[in-house]
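Form 7-S
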Amino acid sequence: IGFYSFDDAAAPMTDDSGTDNDLVSATADPTYLADGGVEGGTYSFDASHLEIPIDVNPVTVPELTIGAWVKTSDLSEGQRKTMGHDDGGWDRTIGLDARNAGDGFRYTSFIGNGRPVVGTPGPESEDGWTFIASVYDQTNNLVTVYVDIDSSTTEEPVVGVTEPSGFGDGFGTMSLGSLRPDNTNEGWIGLIDNAFLFDQALDAGQIRRLRDGGKAAALAGLPPSDPRIALGGGEVFGSVG
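Output:
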């Protein structure tokens, strides 16, 4: 329902998904860079953001997957969000967070009214691109955060952490580059590229194909995952000669 590659220098805020949800200028626009993204163009954020004109409230979109490729320019601990529509109730929001002593500075999502998801990795460098996605399944009250802090290689799996959740309604639109669409609170510092929103809860296989394929995979529509069969050790079927 929204995909933003920023590759068209003449119209970088265009929604490439075909749903015409073009980005909207907000209180302070980020700086557009025609190259330097994970693929093509990108935006550099610092006390700036753009508005995503999509209602992602659970009552409207009960299954939702959001994310992007990001590159932080600040490794100091703090609250810096990539996307969000929080109106004060800990709504659907992803980014970096350092809340809760001992939980670490990490890429994470809110779970509703409570602390952000724990057990996910944090940034290690200002040089590489990180892939982050959050899957919200309101029907089953689950949120799963997927992170690959070095998306330059695709050999390793994407780290995924699932926790119970329960979300209420936030703002009727989203921010790209901050916590909420009406201001730059908890603003991202660094680059964002290939931001995406799907009105479905992508599974682990689809998330990996998205990480591996980037823009092409997102625009291809991500077909259902292949069946995954697990077998125990030993000669499960006996000897076949």
